[in-house]
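input
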Amino acid sequence: MELPVVCMLLLLCSSAAYAQKAKPPSPSFSPTPAPAPAPDFVNLTALLTVAGPFHTFLNYLQSTKVLETFQDQANKTEEGITIFVPSDSAFTALKKPSLSNLTADQLKSVILFHALPHYYTLADFKNLSESSPIPTFAGGDYTLNFTDASGSPHLTSGWSNTKVSSSVYSTDPVAVYQVDKVLLPEAIFGTDIPPTPAPAPAPDIAPAADAPTADGGSSRGSSPGKSSSYRIISWGIWGHLLLAVSGGLALIL
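output
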């Protein structure tokens, strides 16, 4: 009886060992990759306040509420934004036409006209020159034309011809570039563009004075007044001589 029991125990032990070996391995899970970091939030108000003399443009952004539109485009879209910012001196130089005569909607369109709904680096402007005109945030007929002059981007809106003078900020998805003039759209100001002022005429140059002669006189002939005086003096001398001769003859006779 002991032998069958021993055999039974050996059979059970071998079955348990086989079951452990046949057990499938537990699945291994690879770690979930960390999400990409969100881009830094760009505060356009702080940027324009610190970056340069852009207070006038910033005031227009705030008064027309265009700042909110640009801010959302900068931080809530994948396209990004490109803004052309005139300096304070550019607004000061703007005499005619004046922005003060515009309606609220027209002024808002002018400010929207200063941005493109896409992020562009300076190198991208060369391609833009080949596909001009480029639509702006103002939409419709509010477009800009770009040209590339030896790597320097130039913009024209019909009324305004200017260039990008410096890069204020350029990190995807926001680019801010300084321009020398306020961008004025033809859709508001029309096509009757005033001509470029003509250059000032050269000042009149007085003719050179006559060169003096060796005796201190002028190189020109004697003046009529001087000749007449000379003739009067000569006739006076001859008159006195004739009177003297006549008196002498009278005494002799």
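quick obs: The mean pLDDT is 76.
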